[in-house]
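User: For a teaching handout, I'd like to show students what a predicted protein-ligand complex looks like in token form. I'll give you the sequence and the SMILES for magnesium ion. Please answer with just the structure.
Assistant: Understood, here is the input followed by the structure.
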Amino acid sequence: MIITIANQKGGVGKTTTAINLSSGIAKKGFRTLLIDTDPQCNSTSVFFSPEATERNLFGVFSENNYDISSLIKETKTPNLFAIPSSIHLAKVERMLAGEIDAPIKLKKAITPIDAMFDFIILDSPPSLGLITVNALVSSHYVLIPIIPSPWALEGVQDFLDTFKSVKETFNESLKILGVLVTLFDSRTLLAKEATERIKNTFGELVFKEVIHRNVRLEESPAFKEDIFAFAPASKGAVSYNNIVEEVLNRVGK
Ligand SMILES: Nc1ncnc2c1ncn2[C@@H]1O[C@H](COP(=O)(O)OP(=O)(O)O)[C@@H](O)[C@H]1O
Ligand SMILES: [Mg+2]
């Protein structure tokens, strides 16, 4: 089961969700792999020291028949494995311009390791470029985190257009797993109104659990921890655990 966390906006909680969803799923006993595809390397820096990222996902895009399995590293969470990104991934778009298999490079690399894991979670960059397309082409599902702000739905149509063309051209079985309301600020009426609009737009696709703004969630990456290790009793941990349950439910596990 391969799930991409995507939204072309930055700062909407993609990385936070990728880290905590994969740790949470791993904690339930599922063998899980987190692949960082973002050249900003935010998930990478939670799981790897800089020396340990010398070999990274860039190889998949820069070499033919690159063995992605050699990149898989254990993390300190049992059942959770990770693959690091690299700043060099920022070059991929230009490097592969015009190559006929550019959108399917990642899928070709991941297919042979799919069966080794119950879940593969892909963190993606804040753009609708070639890397996000590669992630969507490789996936069964996409999970879309959205901040409930007045401009929350701005740009969502562009995302849905990309989703649709990937589905039509490369990946018929791609589905939206759900829309996750993140960074909800309960003090503002605007957040409540925007959440209503998100629900009106996406209906049942919106996860029941909403992730509130939570200082522990913000702090945990600096300590190289997921929220369950860093602050297990925090509201953030409870919420992400509920999302894990909803995700497992939706995929039938
Ligand atoms: N629920 C939350 N509460 C507080 N801070 C959060 C929450 N979710 C994410 N953050 C913080 O907001 C910033 C952007 O989140 P991040 O997950 O990196 O977004 P993206 O990957 O979409 O750019 C990060 O500093 C992160 O630690
Ligand atoms: Mg990110």
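For the handout, you might add this sentence: The first strand starts at residue 2 and ends at 5.
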